[in-house]
Design goal:
Distance between the termini: 15 Å
CATH topology of the largest domain: Molybdenum Cofactor Biosythetic Enzyme, Chain A
CATH architecture of the largest domain: 3-Layer(aba) Sandwich
Number of domains: 4
Number of strands: 30
Length: 412
């Protein structure tokens, strides 16, 4: 069996970024830039006030002392351009309004008082205070966002502020999903003895979409070699990545490996030292990666998370395709059969500055409830037999927003 790290090292070179496409700004959310975005304007575009207050010459305000400064004119955001500031005067100014020529400081309104039309200053700030200078945030010609940047709400705000209405991003991969097995039925189909609902297709389609790709669900294939081959050929002609579930082992009705070979899928490896999910297959055909996920629902979801999600992120051009692990403290002891790294589903909670992991009471590879409401996959090392309550382990958070991402795999 391959280690997780060795399997990922062999798989990831097959997941290359796809071609670029132009998308309107809001449609680009979640995508990855395929080129640098160069600022065409300065941000801010002009010197403006960071506060409501008064624009002054610092030297004039210092000399005015107790007599104060006469107030002449105002500058407001969106209003007409202010005239220059006359010597030994102040101008009313509002947040975001252009600075008048000649002014070099803004005094907050809270530090002032108007007495008989003259501005008294209780506390004069340092010269240059409360002014946002043109180009302070970003100068025209600078790289605003680099190739490989993920586009989130902050990036969309920046691009909009620069007047950029469309960007070049990597295309979303099309991911074909083929579930196999005579025992599978769809939602709404008649319940026959010995059959189960094909939950894998739904779960994997959701995970593909969450990763940023476009799922293409194929009709379920029964345990018939010719049917599986026909479905695979269809998937390979239309998709950038093919996922199959079930039939990847060596039972009498496990026909997927043979189907792979007969349609031209080159096999790269079978079996990984991971629990759940050992019977993972990986191959490729004409540049299209093909991943054979186990049929057990939890095994399919966990192996997708570990092996497929980073590949999809890489196809999207993401330079940091892996989830960032965090350190958690177990709330109870765990027993472990050595030989494979185990990923234990757990709920997390913060308590007294610690991040506690409570393992789900069901850890079977077919237990669908064990993937509902969990926050993390806790990594139990390959060679240990028991982990005590209170011991600290690494865990993959199933929400990237909570943990961030990284460029290298989190597995030794």
């Amino acid at each position: 069996m391959k280690t997780i790290a060795a399997a990922l090292a062999e798989m990831m070179p097959h997941f290359e970024p796809l071609g670029a496409e132009r998308r309107q700004l809001l449609a680009a959310q979640g995508a990855v830039l395929a080129e640098d975005v160069i600022a065409g304007i300065d941000l801010p575009g002009f010197d403006n006030s960071a506060m409501d207050g008064y624009a002054v010459r610092h030297a004039d305000a210092t000399e005015a002392g107790a007599t104060g400064l006469p107030v002449a004119g105002e500058s407001r955001a969106g209003g007409p351009p202010p005239g220059p500031l006359s010597p030994a005067t102040a101008m009313r100014i509002f947040t975001g309004a252009p600075m008048p020529d000649g002014a070099d400081t803004v005094v907050m309104v809270e530090q002032t008082e108007l007495v008989a039309g003259r501005l008294r200053i209780a506390r004069l700030p340092d010269a240059g205070s409360f002014i946002r200078r043109r180009g302070d945030d970003l100068g025209a010609g600078a790289v605003a966002l680099a190739l490989g940047s993920r586009i989130g709400s902050g990036e969309i705000g920046l691009l909009a502020g620069l007047g950029v209405g469309a960007v070049s991003v990597y295309r979303r991969p099309r991911v074909a999903i083929l579930a196999t097995g005579d025992e599978l039925r769809d939602i709404g189909q008649t319940r026959e003895p010995g059959t189960i609902v094909n939950s894998n297709t739904y779960a994997l389609a959701a995970m593909v979409r969450e990763a940023g790709a476009e799922p293409q669900v194929l009709p379920t294939a029964n345990d018939d070699l010719e049917v599986i081959k026909a479905s695979l050929r269809q998937a390979l002609t239309a998709a950038d990545l093919v996922l199959t579930t079930g039939g990847v082992s060596v039972g009498a009705y496990d026909l997927v490996a043979e189907a792979y070979a007969q349609v031209g899928v080159v096999s790269h490896f079978w079996k990984v030292a991971i629990k759940p999910g050992k019977p993972l297959r990986f191959g490729s055909c004409g540049g299209v990666p093909v991943v054979g996920l186990p049929g057990n629902p939890v095994s399919a979801m966990v192996t997708f998370e570990v092996f497929v999600r980073p590949g999809i992120r890489r196809m999207l051009g993401d330079l940091r395709p892996y989830r960032q692990p965090v350190t958690v403290e177990l709330t109870q002891a765990l027993f472990h059969d050595p030989g494979r790294l185990e990923l234990v589903r757990a709920r997390l909670r913060h308590e007294a500055g610690r991040l506690l992991a409570e393992p789900h009471p069901r850890q079977g590879s077919g237990s669908l409830p064990s993937m509902s409401g969990v926050d993390a996959l806790v990594m139990v090392p390959t060679d240990c037999t028991r982990v005590a309550a209170g011991e600290k382990l690494s865990a993959l958070l199933l929400s990237e927003a909570a943990a961030g991402s990284r460029a290298t795999p989190p597995f030794a």
